[in-house]
Design goal:
Length: about 110
């Protein structure tokens, strides 16, 4: 019984933790990017069409920044793994993915 209480308390503590990542090179990439609004939208559209045409079995997004383009693939039901070296960018990606996830088991701890 004591172990169950300890685990429950630990789970509660972990769930209450939050980190607001700011100020890193890649986590803020799209706010200061060299993409114009038209170019950014065009890239999203091209990727969307590519995923529809090619229908890959899996996508690995290397250097995914905050995962904007990874989520285009995953929104089509394609298993997608995002990779980035910036922990703040990974956290932003994770938080955005959690907001968009319809299935609570969709996410792994690392995106």
């Amino acid at each position: 019984m004591a172990l169950t209480g300890l685990v429950s308390s630990l789970e509660s503590t972990i769930k209450s933790l939050s980190w607001k990542p700011v100020g890193t090179e890649w986590a803020d990439y799209y706010t200061g990017t060299n993409y114009s609004d038209v170019a950014f939208s065009s890239k999203q559209q091209i990727l969307n069409e590519l995923m529809t045409t090619v229908k890959p079995g899996m996508v690995w997004d290397l250097g995914s920044n905050t995962g904007v383009f990874s989520r285009i693939a995953s929104s089509k039901g394609i298993p997608t793994i995002s990779f980035d070296v910036d922990p703040a960018a990974v956290e932003v990606n994770y938080l955005e993915s959690c907001k968009e996830a319809k299935d609570p088991f969709f996410l792994w701890c690392w995106i």
